[in-house]
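ugh ok so i messed up the first submission bc i forgot one of the chains. this is the corrected input, ALL of the components this time, i swear. 236 residues overall. if the numbers dont match what u have on ur side tell me asap before i send this to the collaborators (the ones from the other lab, u know who)
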Amino acid sequence: MTDRTGQVAVIFSSQRRSDDEADYAAAAAAMDRLAALQPGYCGVDSARGADGFGITVSWWADEAAALAWRGHPDHVAIRDRGRNEWYDGYEVAVTTVGRSYRWARDRGNIPADPSLPS
Amino acid sequence: MTDRTGQVAVIFSSQRRSDDEADYAAAAAAMDRLAALQPGYCGVDSARGADGFGITVSWWADEAAALAWRGHPDHVAIRDRGRNEWYDGYEVAVTTVGRSYRWARDRGNIPADPSLPS
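and heres the new structure output, hopefully the right one now
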């Protein structure tokens, strides 16, 4: 996908409290797999540094899809576990994409409009 | 700040190509300091994992502030350097925050509306 305009991007920024990495990584990977099965799923990107601060962005076709994922019972349960076990704090921002673009070393600018020359 | 509703969040996801960490880290820190001086700056969050994939979210009061930062000459120059030296690829999504919330271990839910009980 080269253009995310109109998608809903849920930005989840969190500070891990411990180094219980295997347990956390398994749960996070399971959530990523489950998210990918939901209607309207458009991808997940995640990064976490050695300091335990991480950002995950999940991309959704629309607000309804993002809300449905928020309400998924397994997702609700894992958020409870996150507060109890994994995080010192987090912030969630639910956003709408106004424009997007990409660049890749082997492709150059990847235009949002497929009718443009690449 | 406890509520980012209405802010512009610029999501920059990138794949680093090399481990030229000291040079890159210095340039990234300089950009963070410069961004913080711009009108409408509301914060920057960054995370990058050992695999070289990172996400930086810069938060702006409005679209004009985000566009002004995009056009800052030093920022333009560092993006050229990023394409030439540091990245295999990146994606930018410019988004508007519809709602946001926070949780912290020592404070619980941090309400967006300061008139609400915490």
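quick check: The mean pLDDT of chain B is 90. that seems consistent at least. The interface with chain A takes residues 4, 7, 9, 11, 13, 17, 45-50, 53-55, 57, 63, 83, 87-105 of chain B (CB under 8 Å).
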